[in-house]
């Protein structure tokens, strides 16, 4: 990647923002969507050296909107209607053979948000508010987590002991939360999904275990948790790999009696849980019914489909 | 996810009891989950096939035309079910609509409620001039044409008693208007006038005519075309015109294309199918419309359905499917003819003042004596809410309902956004033993009554939004 270009674009964005903020000369209201500027792209990609991923600047500024469209559309209504139907970048116009400035800036911004989501951390504030204790997989750093999916599927020894000492054994449903590839997904959605899911499970009469948070987890980490706690069902709320449409999308993986050697076909997933997809609170309410089905048929994933027939 | 690609079909009926003719259609809808495997299901109607079209029957009347002949209409409907080879119990949705002057008959309301409850498991009754126009525009193809072209299309459905205009632009309803313009407003036998409808008499009196005879027909037709042109122009001049039924045109867009449907349009587009056996001015009206230079300014497009536009619309376009994540107590469905009260949250957030104020109004409107009349709450304008906000909203709703609706009655809530299941569960958590119906992704823009059908296999409910206004 061309670093000078990125720096140039970033400084342009910041300049533009300063001008905008200055002219408005009012502080944006706290309820506005904020974007945080981190320094993730300037990490040194030298192997063997611990990479510095700490946030250099945590000050939040208002997220700029970059709107770009075809200059003179033949049928404006139709174009707007189509644009409303998809978050994809359609009808954004062009300047010669290149994207328009706004389209490029939007792309850069979304890309930066995706990078932030991968390198970000779930805040202590959320964990303590939700009373989720935190454990760690066998990965030491974020870089290692990204390069070694196998380690993200294993808990470290301290974590195993912690889980065994803290958690109720043999629950019907064990809820686990993990940052996965997007800490933002957890920050934005996990609370609402969790509360709504808990209410739903409670109404359906299912008994739930002690929830906890796994740092740097991969989906299959649920197998080891299954061995430790022997639950009937595990539901893992995990951050999805960020894309350019949304960097905060959450997935819920559900598996009936996950244990060592569980095959991927027996896991099922409800994805796209975020403000722009399925609303988190509604997703939680729906997931209760999915778990009910899993418990009724004593199967999940492909096995469930076969039993349902 | 387990419902992926599993298809379900339901049978829908449409019955149109018009001023001069009665007809019905039976169609089959295919429902399927169109969401990806890993997504929350989204059930949509992906296909509609017409299984049966009835012939056109003359609407049976009694007592010199003041009443609809109920037994005769029942006979027609059941006879047609038999011909189509469909049991009335197989009808899962659809609408009976009573249109034009039939809606003014003394037993109109009784007739359609009776027919709706008896002729199909979830066949709903509907009426009202605005809805007639909307349903006809959907049946005639005008609505689809406006989507395909992005143009502003006016559908003019002219039957025996009324002309119902509905204007659509790019699939969006711009407005409606209804005129006393129709083929059956004057009837005759051997060139002698035998019946003149009230609005025509009113108009005649303004011209100093006391006895309308055949010599006045031409002037009358000219006047009908003139009012139609005024209406298409969106003119407010019509305000006190005897031919205006209800409100003046309420659209602000310029109409670009016109399409005619209804019985009279049959003579307009297909003169060979038109033999004038109705002994009324329908044929002459069609001729006038065809030749009118004033109407020639608009581009004219041939509809896909003429005389059957309304019945097709009633049979295939009235049913909506709820969102797939909903919370319903199955025992209380179907529910019919629920008046709807709208709770609008203008800034996207929950607001206790709005809940309490609207609930009070709803109670005063629909259940003033606290007799336990059911009504539905429609919540619109809400954004993506946090769980705690939804919980709070549930508390306010239940608490304020407590003062208006009897405790044993079901709570019926429709939400525009996707949050019915969580809201329903939050309400259920407060009142565990009370039936709760909470559905979403239904828009209640054109109508004030609601019918909710039984839950289908796909775990959605069919919903019909409608009006029940009978012409005065």
TrEMBL record, chain A:
One of its GO terms (biological process) is ethanolamine catabolic process. GO terms for cellular component: ethanolamine ammonia-lyase complex; ethanolamine degradation polyhedral organelle. It is an enzyme of class 4 (lyase). Its main location: other. Its cofactor is adenosylcob(III)alamin. Binds between the large and small subunits. Pfam families: EutC. Pathway: Amine and polyamine degradation; ethanolamine degradation. The keyword Transport does not apply. Adenosylcob(III)alamin binds at residues 219, 240. It is found in: Bacterial microcompartment. One of its GO terms (molecular function) is cobalamin binding. Belongs to the EutC family. The basic unit is a heterodimer which dimerizes to form tetramers. The heterotetramers trimerize; 6 large subunits form a core ring with 6 small subunits projecting outwards. Catalyzes the deamination of various vicinal amino-alcohols to oxo compounds. Allows this organism to utilize ethanolamine as the sole source of nitrogen and carbon in the presence of external vitamin B12. This is Ethanolamine ammonia-lyase small subunit. It comes from Fictibacillus macauensis ZFHKF-1. The gene is eutC.
From TrEMBL, chain B:
The keyword Lyase applies. The keyword Heme does not apply. Signal peptide: none annotated. One of its GO terms (molecular function) is lyase activity. Keywords: Lyase. InterPro entries: ATPase_NBD, EutA, FtsA/MreB. It holds the Pfam family EutA. This is Reactivating factor for ethanolamine ammonia lyase. It comes from Fictibacillus macauensis ZFHKF-1. The gene is eutA.
